[in-house]
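Bug #77: duplicate submission created two jobs. Keeping one. Sequence:
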Amino acid sequence: MKRNNTLTDVSPRPKWKQWLIDRFDLSSQNRNELLDELQRANDKNILHGEAVDMMQGVMEFGVLQVRDIMLPRPQIDFIYHDDDFQTILERISETEHSRYPVFDEDRDDLIGVLLAKDLLKYIGRRGEFNIDDVVRPALLVPESQRLNRLLSEFRNNRSHMALVIDEYAGVAGLVTFEDVLEQIVGDIDDEHDAEEEEEGNIRLHDDGRYVVQAITPLNEFDEVLGTQFVRDECDTVAGLVIQQLGKIPRQGEELFFEDLLFRVLRSDNRRILLLEVLTGEAAVAEQAAVA
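Kept job's structure:
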């Protein structure tokens, strides 16, 4: 049967699409050209800067893999299967997360995931605690998985955290639903992030390591750590690290420079957010261990 194509069959063009057509040259031939168009729209104040950032984040989203945003294995806060109730409570109090991987004897022997809220029913009834009653199955994803696929898995499994598995089926890292969203909307600060900022750009921990906000001016960094970095081409610690590496590093990447070890604790595809800095013998020992 011949299809009857009439004007009434054609749906009106959405207003947002007509708005884009009216304001953009949509002749871009590839993703990079379109990103350039978005940046020009920002420069001309056609779009708000935050909107441009999100649109650029969406375009980069399908290219990124889990390994690009995951928390590396050495930085995972976890619980052992044999930990007693008090030990687990102390661990949660110290680290203040809502979810924890549960391992047996090592971090390749994953048991599952513990939600901190599941411990509330044992308050006043500690003798009844059995970790096997509250451990939930873990969502496992490969390092190479694209973020758009990971987002679908989070939705389908109603999960907020996944353990990242390497090619040998070992635990390589951890990724959360928030990590994925931050690639689109930018850094999401929670109440703990606010506390970190209130404590200053540079915090010295008892074990001798420094946790440094990436936006820390180099002159402030020099004053605290006694360094003397040249500020001809960069003004912040993030700028120094990016300049030396020649790229925006991923979480977990390291730079050994001027007897300091810089380790990226938090970053996204556009910027570095938080760094760990080791000095002196600790930096040299860490570098030697990696080599």
